[in-house]
Write the structure tokens for this entry.
Amino acid sequence: MAMAELKFPVTKIDNNKFQVVVDMALYAKEAIVAACYKLTDRFFVHQQTEGDSVCVVFESKDGNAVSEETVKQFCNELIDQQVRHNTNLQFGHIRDLIVEEAFKPVNK
């Protein structure tokens, strides 16, 4: 049985720009923004919502060339940020209880 060819949602716009289309049914807005932020030290990052997806464009900054490798790093970071987001939704209340307990006044 042959596997279907995956559609990689990446487009090379020109020598200095790549575009990724991110499906918002798979990733939360917060995860997308956090993943973008991780790369802003090396690249200009632009976002635009288009229906049920977010178009993210990476542009060369300070001589850092944008490549398909850059976009693949972004895709991995996107997964990492979505897992963090999901974990926070599921267990964030536990963290809040721990912090609350840690900062309670001490009674003598």
